[in-house]
């Protein structure tokens, strides 16, 4: 078997023992049944850049019709994956819907499934969907089998970072008085200004973006380089909340205040849309430097 560089890189991510006889109840087909390898099509955005170029059909969901089933169903996962709910969410999902084309079948390990599920199921619930039965972690092999394992560097790296989670929509206060803004700045861990942008016709891009730089009024525990992504992830977790904040095809500058819980979860609490005429906000941000709460 010839491995391309990307396949090789992918295999290097795997650990565990290669077992020649690889059997599992999840396999929707037996190894005697004919399977085929195809190039992951460009339209299959969620797996196109997963790190290998050929996938096997039928996939682990038992789908064999590429144009009619595999590609369109893959789109169902985009709203979840674009939230960045887990750094291995894409590898996990694509190992099921677009399994790498090697001469053995490689499933995600039970432990990887659990790690991804624990991070992503709350986001999926926020978007109105239960964790699907097809991804029930009990169906995946323990690490003694050859399978896709969680990378410990990710779980270690992620542990203390501020993280966007599902929450109720924060309150939005239009044309606030200076003292209203000052009090929000005093009572929450962080305050930033950010321009929220909503595409009019989202096709491939996420519908919501954070335009330009995020400016800190009060940095608190937020990381300077990560906050733009953090806010974008937050917008993409509850799309109906985000939709209430900015109209299609528009951008809106906001002062966003919120807190960071000890586990790193952020909660946005009070939001102020900042229009040019809003003297109250401008004055508050100027006074803040010298203000004592
Ligand atoms: C998402 O936002 C909507 C709209 O503001 C809100 O009604 C809903 O409660 C939010 N969802 C969750 C799970 O918090």
Automatic annotation (TrEMBL):
One of its GO terms (molecular function) is Wnt-protein binding. One of its GO terms (cellular component) is extracellular space. Residues 1-23 form the signal peptide. It is found in: Secreted. Keywords: Developmental protein, Differentiation, Disulfide bond, Secreted, Signal, Wnt signaling pathway. Disulfide bonds join 113-137. It comes from the Eukaryota. It holds the Pfam family Fz. One of its GO terms (biological process) is determination of dorsal identity. InterPro entries: Frizzled/SFRP (IPR015526), Frizzled_dom (IPR020067), Frizzled_dom_sf (IPR036790), Netrin_domain (IPR001134). CDD domains: NTR_Sfrp1_like. Residues 32-150 form the FZ domain. Residues 166-293 form the NTR domain. Its main location: secreted. Belongs to the secreted frizzled-related protein (sFRP) family. This is Sizzled.
